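Session log. Operator J.P. requested a structure for one protein chain; no other inputs attached. Running the standard single-chain path with token output.
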Amino acid sequence: MPKNDRNGQAEIWSEDQFQAVMAELSPKMRAAFSICYYSGCRISEALQLKAEDLISDRIVFRRMTTKTKQTREVKIHPKLAAVLKQADLPKTGFLFPGRGKRGYLTRQAADKALREACEYLGFVGFSTHSNRRTAATKLNNAGVPLRVIQKVGGWSELSALQKYLEVTPNQIDDAILKL
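Structure written below.
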């Protein structure tokens, strides 16, 4: 069931859909959602990143900002590096500064920007979690072992990760043909 009014699972982006939505977002929002797409992180983890968390060719997600309370690092994909460069992000402090007490942009503000872009394009069922689901599914479809995907996205349990993976009817048909 596609996501509807915060119920159900977020849809998986096709490459064309992702690019269309990114084109509708501001450079900073594009950077935040690209971090999610290319690292499998949650939007709240991306928004809490500081410039100091981008170290050489890596993003360090500090334990205090992750749901599992474990630090992890992910290599910066070349496409993500290009998006980050275009976004003109701060050199110190939060990458996505906000006006509130926290100091960084809220998850709700990012969600609103994404929903508006999706609505404009006529895309239904997508949410901030679409990036995370897409990353996990694309890695799985590329043959990356589940334990590696688990480490990349910071899932605490393989059973939690498996809920994120999209399985298409064609994949099921192809599996049967391998018997």
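Operator note: Strands lie at 54-55, 58-61, 72-75.
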